[in-house]
Design brief:
The complex is a heterodimer of chains A (about 375) and B (about 300).
Chain A: H1 2-15, H2 19-32, H3 34-37, E1 45-51, H4 56-67, E2 71-77, H5 80-88, E3 94-98, H6 102-109, E4 115-118, H7 123-152, H8 174-205, H9 207-212, H10 218-246, H11 256-280, H12 284-302, H13 313-319, H14 323-337, H15 345-369
Parallel strand pairs in A: 1-2, 1-3
Antiparallel strand pairs in A: 3-4
Helix pairs in contact in A: 1-10, 2-8, 2-10, 8-10, 8-11, 8-12, 8-14, 10-11, 11-14, 11-15, 12-13, 12-14, 14-15
Chain B: E1 4-13, E2 16-26, E3 31-35, H1 42-49, E4 57-62, E5 65-66, H2 71-77, E6 78-81, H3 93-103, H4 112-122, H5 135-147, E7 153-157, H6 165-180, E8 184-189, E9 200-205, E10 208-213, H7 215-220, E11 225-230, H8 234-243, E12 247-253, E13 256-261, H9 271-284, E14 291-294, H10 299-306
Parallel strand pairs in B: 3-8, 3-9, 6-7, 7-8
Antiparallel strand pairs in B: 1-2, 1-4, 4-5, 9-10, 11-13, 11-14, 12-13
Helix pairs in contact in B: 3-5, 4-5
The chains are: A alpha/beta (about 375), B alpha/beta (about 300).
Chain lengths: ~375, ~300
């Protein structure tokens, strides 16, 4: 009987004008386009320069900034008011004000001030831009000091240089970090949402009730709903791994079998979550809304965009209830660090826990309503 | 033992009492109609009898099996057609039928004789998706799907709602054929005119059975004087009739009004005289083309009478 029900589910799935395309297009879009679009490296920051000094020093500073590649001089103003106006009209993001007598003060008194004002409406751009700019200025500062001190006497200036060594992702490539995590998103959609919406849809159509007045057991019925999506989940995962390899050149350092093992656990848990939603939702609208609410929370707490360690303590605590957090950790660790099962025991325990919890809840809430 | 035995069933949804102590029995090979307006509790009763809902109290036995304890046995032997079309809209006519045959562990061929008459009308459309069928065709397909496993008892919840009059008539003819093959049929409908198609009916309102009888007996038990009244201005007529002191009730029935007359008061002398008085009263109110005729009660009259 299960075989026949599965046949029916597959038939319905492929007959749907929308779903089969979604299952193909969604992972491709997610893996091909999102890593490019959701890039936090900031380039082309529009800088407004207010150079009231017009000295060789100030000119060489501006040149240095321009040469860094991060900034585009959008506007050169003669006073701060004008520069501010260009920020207000969104022409510039950051103002660098070089006061009169900048060079004179620097040479004579060995100190001079500059002012950086950033538009913080886009906090990331403002913050990162200021940081980049400060870096360039301090670099400039070191050079000047070297030049000036060399002229007086050849006193050695103690200098501290920091050379960061980026482990596991040497070039700090954003896509290396994002691609494994985006795979999880795609899996969550295919294995969690789709079966939940499918069941709610049968509820809405009344077919679920019609099925309940037949000898088909509830277990068989639900299994016939979940199995096809598990299959699609593996297909999608394999497609994702392929895209990661051929498009982004990413091959997991660790064992692929570890990925499939953990994904199986995650999919079990997340489809259980989908079942819980389908038990409480009376129609597709409610189900969509519930899923949207929970999944948004899960994503924000998962460390997909913001590292969990950067969150405030309370948020870090709550992030423990996001199943996405663990599976994203697993994929990143297997992909980038080559971790094996023994390194991933906490995640293993957590995912088994989620699978038990959600499926247990699904069974209980189904009974209550059945 | 009768195939359906219901005794003192109660069901409450929150504060709404959907069923208030319903008891009845349906005999084998009988079409038993549950007649009542929307919200009377018909669907609740069907859902309890088809094991989809657990009653708060009371007992229901389907072919001797308890609806709560032996729901699995019951699900194997009854056919249920819910009020709303509940088949797979994205599967074709034939595929839907096959789904229901397969899950009952039978084949279309095995019980084809049961559905032959109905299915023949559907056959030209057998590759069409169920969602694209007309209302009448959908009902026929739903009936086929409910019959394909040769159920002993058929539950039809408002099968003719939203179906055109010709299809409705055909549908009842089919039910009679099925009954003649020994299938017990419990059917509900809000249409009083369909009551006469049933062998016995129960009038239900507000979760209570008002009466269980054969349609003929119900009509014969109507003892009041019943007249149909018409005039050129029907709406003011209804108001004027209700104001007249010996008119007990007055309801609009299609193009006439049905009135019952209070026989107990001193003003009632004889039918003929009272009719004349009524005519004169209406003429005074300015009505013309007045027609007053004694009529035989319909099921709807009985329902109105019982529910007031």
């Amino acid at each position: 009987m299960l075989r026949y029900l599965l046949e029916k589910e597959f038939k319905q799935f492929f007959r749907n004008p929308f779903l089969p395309r979604l299952v193909v297009i969604f992972p491709l879009t997610a893996l091909l386009i999102f890593p490019l679009a959701a890039n936090f490296d900031i380039e082309n920051i529009n800088l407004s320069v207010v150079d009231q000094d017009k000295s060789p020093f100030s000119k060489s500073l501006v040149q240095k900034i321009q040469a860094s590649g991060y900034f585009r001089i959008s506007n050169v103003s003669s006073n701060f008011q004008q520069a501010l106006a260009s920020v207000e009209s969104d022409e510039s993001d950051i103002i660098l004000e070089i006061p009169p007598n900048f060079e004179k003060n620097l040479v004579r008194e060995m100190r001079a001030s500059l002012m950086i004002s950033a538009n913080a409406v886009n906090g990331v751009k403002g913050g990162l831009g200021t940081a980049y700019l400060s870096g360039i200025i301090s670099d400039f500062n070191t050079n000047i000091r070297m030049q000036l001190t060399q002229n007086y006497n050849r006193l050695k200036v103690p200098n501290l240089e920091i050379l960061p060594l980026y482990k596991y992702n040497p070039q700090l490539l954003y896509e290396v970090f994002m691609v494994p995590a985006l795979m999880v998103m795609v899996l969550a959609m295919v294995c969690g949402f789709l079966p939940a919406l499918n069941i709610v849809n049968e509820k809405e159509q009344g077919t679920l009730e019609q099925m309940n007045v037949t000898p088909v057991s509830k277990f068989t019925l639900i299994l016939s709903k979940l199995l096809p999506y598990w299959v699609f989940g593996y297909v999608v995962l394999t497609v994702c791994i392929g895209v990661a390899l051929f498009v982004w050149g990413l091959l997991p350092l660790g064992n692929l079998a570890v990925i499939y093992l953990f994904v199986t656990l995650f999919v079990l848990g997340f489809s259980g979550f989908g079942l819980v939603v389908s038990n409480y939702a009376a129609n597709t609208q409610q189900a969509m809304f519930m899923i949207f609410f929970f999944v948004l929370s899960f994503i924000f707490l998962s460390g997909l965009y913001t590292p969990v360690a950067n969150m405030p303590d309370w948020a870090q605590l709550i992030s423990n209830i996001s199943p996405l957090k663990y599976i994203i950790e697993v994929l990143r660790m297997v992909y980038l660090k080559g971790s094996g099962v023994q390194d991933l025991l906490p995640q293993l325990v957590a995912l088994v826990g989620f699978a038990t919890f959600f499926n247990g809840w699904a069974v209980l809430s189904y009974r209550k309503r059945g | 033992m009768n195939p359906i035995i219901v005794s003192d069933v109660y069901k409450k949804y929150g504060k709404v009492q959907a069923l208030e102590g319903v008891s009845f029995e349906v005999e084998k090979g009988e079409i038993f109609g549950i007649i009542g307006p929307d919200g009377a509790g018909k669907t609740t009763l069907f859902r309890i009898l088809t094991t989809l809902l657990i009653p708060d109290s009371g007992e229901a036995l389907i072919d001797g099996h308890h609806v709560v304890n032996h729901y699995k046995t019951i699900r194997n032997m009854v056919g249920y057609m819910p009020g709303r079309f509940s088949l797979y809209q994205d599967l074709s006519v034939e595929e839907n039928l096959k789904v229901f045959a397969t899950i009952f562990d039978t084949t279309i061929q095995e019980n084809y004789h049961l559905i032959k008459d109905i299915y023949q009308q559907l056959e030209p459309f057998k590759t069409r998706r169920a969602g694209a069928l007309s209302g009448g065709m959908k009902q026929k397909l739903a009936l086929c799907c409910a019959l394909i496993h040769k159920p002993a008892i058929l539950f039809l919840d408002e099968p003719t709602t939203g179906v055109d009059p010709v299809s409705r008539k055909e549908f009842w003819e089919m039910l009679k054929k099925l009954r003649d093959q020994g299938i017990t049929i419990l059917v509900s409908t809000p249409y009083m005119d369909e009551a006469s198609m049933c062998d016995r009916i129960a009038l239900i309102q507000g979760g209570n059975f008002l009466k269980i009888e054969t349609p003929t007996n119900i009509r014969e038990q109507f003892k009041k004087i019943l007249w149909s009244v018409q005039s050129s201005r029907m709406f003011p007529l209804l108001k004027d009739l209700r104001k007249y002191h010996i008119v007990k009730t007055s309801f609009a029935f299609g193009d006439t009004h049905h009135v019952t007359i209070d026989q107990s008061g001193e003003d009632y002398v004889s039918d003929q005289l009272t009719m004349d008085y009524l005519r004169r009263y209406l003429e005074d109110k300015g009505h013309t083309e007045i027609m007053i005729q004694p009529i035989k009660a319909t099921i709807e009259d009985c329902f109105m009478e019982l529910s007031h």
